[in-house]
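Collaborator request, handled under Task 6.
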Amino acid sequence: MINRARELIAQGEDVRIFSARANPMRYDMHGDYLYMIMQIKEWCRTHIGKIIPIEFKKDEYLKYYYDDKAKQVVRNEGIVVEDIANVVK
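Structure tokens returned to the collaborator:
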């Protein structure tokens, strides 16, 4: 995924990190939120080569979403794409 992110950035795509850790409402006001943001920024600098935007929620302009737990569905149909692929096999 790091290589994919680097390639997309090189192609001029808007690449962002999505993390619940970036939600300021998730942490108490003792600096935990700022610490988490600092850690994510440092990870970006180390692994991607630059800091990219950090989000905790998706917006309507999202083109692609990569996640180790997400499953793609057919828009407005509620059908899991993986289920369709298993039927075709």
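The cover message to the collaborator said: "The chain has three helices and two strands. The chain has one domain: 2-88. Please let us know whether this matches your experimental observations."
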